[in-house]
Amino acid sequence: MLEERFNRIPLFIRPQGFFQTNPQVAEGLYGTAQQWVKDLPVNKLWDLFCGVGGFGLHCAKALQEKNPDIELTGIEIAPSAIYCAGLSAQKCGLKKVNFQSLDAANFALNQDENKPDLVIVNPPRRGIGKPLAQFLNQMQPQFILYSSCNAISMTKDLLELTHYQLQKIQLFDMFPHTSHYEVLTLLIKR
């Protein structure tokens, strides 16, 4: 296992695990997410498709400055990524953190209570899909932070989120000299 640090947040990489391949751009991506959410009134957040916890840990750490009782739930299908995310949370000193190895869409669709204030999604290229987008639209967390490597699937998902307006958007050139990129958006409930 390798330890990498992004904005003083330790993230761990295991063999065959997904990780952003451009560390400088990834640090900017996570740092931007951190800056966008740090002053939002958030007590509870979900990080769906969390991988090793990069987005959730960055956001929880920023929110912890104003609210030491911030609650983070991170969901990722890969058990090795969840192990790494838990290790990072311990090193960050975050207390109310729950990382679970589950299918992110199934987890969210089966939640009746415990509504978060902020939902972070960083799905694979296919996007979050219509059922999860419609569920989030119905559940109506105050904020959604959506990171995507595919603006086409993200656009389809955003069209389903009719109760939200786009507050911020930024493109990150994750793979210079290619057509690949990362897009970060912040959505706010209307």
Brief rundown of the structure:
This protein is of the alpha/beta class and 190 residues long. The protein contains 6 helices and 9 strands, in the order ββαβαβαβαβαβαββ.
How far apart the termini lie comes to 43 Å
**Content-based structural category:** alpha/beta
- Spell out the CATH superfamily: Vaccinia Virus protein VP39
- Looking at the structure, what is the overall shape? globular
As residue ranges, the low-confidence spans are none
Give the number of DSSP strands. 9
Strand order of the largest sheet: 5-4-3-6-7-9-8
InterPro entries: MeTrfase_TrmA_AS, MeTrfase_TrmA_CS, SAM-dependent_MTases_sf, U5_MeTrfase_fam
Keywords: Methyltransferase, S-adenosyl-L-methionine, Transferase
Family: Belongs to the class I-like SAM-binding methyltransferase superfamily. RNA M5U methyltransferase family.
Protein name: 23S rRNA (Uracil-5-)-methyltransferase RumB
Which helices and strands, and how do they pair?
Layout: E1 2-6, E2 9-13, H1 23-37, E3 44-48, H2 54-64, E4 71-76, H3 79-92, E5 97-101, H4 104-109, E6 118-121, H5 130-139, E7 143-148, H6 151-160, E8 164-172, E9 182-189
Parallel strand pairs: 3-4, 3-6, 4-5, 6-7
Antiparallel strand pairs: 1-2, 7-9, 8-9
Helix pairs in contact: 1-2, 5-6
Describe this structure in words.
The protein has one domain: 3-Layer(aba) Sandwich (Rossmann fold). Strands 5-4-3-6-7-9-8 form a seven-stranded mixed beta sheet, with helices on both faces. A two-stranded antiparallel sheet has the order 1-2. It is α/β, with parallel strands linked by helices. It is built from six helices and nine strands. It has helices spanning 23-37, 54-64, 79-92, 104-109, 130-139, 151-160, and strands at 2-6, 9-13, 44-48, 71-76, 97-101, 118-121, 143-148, 164-172, 182-189. Helix 5 links the parallel strand 6 (118-121) and strand 7 (143-148). It is 35% helix and 28% strand. The model has no long low-confidence stretch (mean pLDDT 94).
